[in-house]
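Aim 2 progress update. The chain analyzed this quarter is reproduced below.
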Amino acid sequence: MTLRTVAILSPGDMGHSVGKILGQHGFDVITCLLGRSDRTKRLALEGNFRVVNSINQLVEEADVVLSILVPAHAQALAEEVASALRITRSSTYFADCNAVSPRKSLLISDIINNAGGRYIDGGIIGGAPGKGVAPRFYVSGPDSNLLMALDGKGITVKSIGDSIGRASGIKMCYAALTKGTNTLQVALLLAAHKMGLIYELAEEFAFSQQDQLRKMETTIPSLPANAHRWIGEMQEIAQTFDDISVTSQFHMGAAVIYDLLNATPFANETPESIDTDRTVWQIIESLSEVQGIKKK
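Predicted structure tokens:
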């Protein structure tokens, strides 16, 4: 079929950027904002989305729904869309593009398919469109080639097979490295701080691990603003690893670190309002204070 109308739920940092770039390439991009935050509504406006009045209207008008949101909410959204599919008797395609385990993707597949929709397994790697290299949308499943119509339209689409779980699996392994490494860095800096060795360790890193120190200095200050999303992502990675008899302990620990980051005052920021002057050392000092409060 020819893709013309693409629905995105919901237009957050990634979702609104994807919608904006697809709109610039001629697609009719729609969303529903019932119950959404003022920030989400503002981002939808900035992304030039066409706003429809209900989820029922959205599934009737859309050729495909792209689910792009916090992984902890992925199943609930699928159930909401499934209810609309039953009511409208639509057979809309639904692509879960969230950071969920293959097990969770299979569960969501059943929810959508049993309601009459057609499910596509997806996973996004890379930053939002317009912020450097185009993000890669990995997709899999019997209907995954449908999304190849979006390839080169501000995003890169890679179809990697007919099995549900392949696309979500590659996302899990990729995020296990990137977001998992971030938490390892935070944990070792926090340990050094608590032992009174932070300055000595930073000096040694500056001598022998310049690239790693530079990455910590540039990446860690922005982590609290996104930590609430990544707690669940680490839990999904842990589930993925556990399902294939690879230790889940690394990423259960990573979830604990993101939970700490989410408890700092900096977690009140959004990706648009991050203080770019804040240092990694301020983050570590705040984490030490948060951990002390949690232990009381």
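The chain has a mean pLDDT of 96. The chain is about 55% helix and 15% strand. These observations will guide the mutagenesis experiments scheduled for the next reporting period.
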